[in-house]
Amino acid sequence: MAIAFTLIETAKLSHIDPQAWLTWVLAQIADHKITRLDELLPWPVTLP
User: In whole angstroms, what is the distance from residue 23 CA to residue 18 CA?
Assistant: First the structure.
């Protein structure tokens, strides 16, 4: 649970809507390579 709160607060600090980010991550994660999971973290994300 603490990890989820940390990611949500990080998204907020990065001026990213946490709900939009989480929705985007859940849509992307199934087809994403495990070696590139850092691309799904809230700081480098540009949401469509």
Answer: 8
Helix or strand holding residue 21 (H, E): helix 18-28
- 45 secondary structure, DSSP code: -
48 residues of the chain, pLDDT tens digit each: 898 899 899 889 888 899 998 999 889 888 888 888 888 877 765 666
Stated pTM of the model: 0.68
- Residue 2 class from Cβ within 10 Å (0-12 exposed, 13-18 middle, 19+ buried)? exposed
Across 19-36, b (16+ Cβ under 10 Å) vs e yields eebbebbeeeeeeeeeee
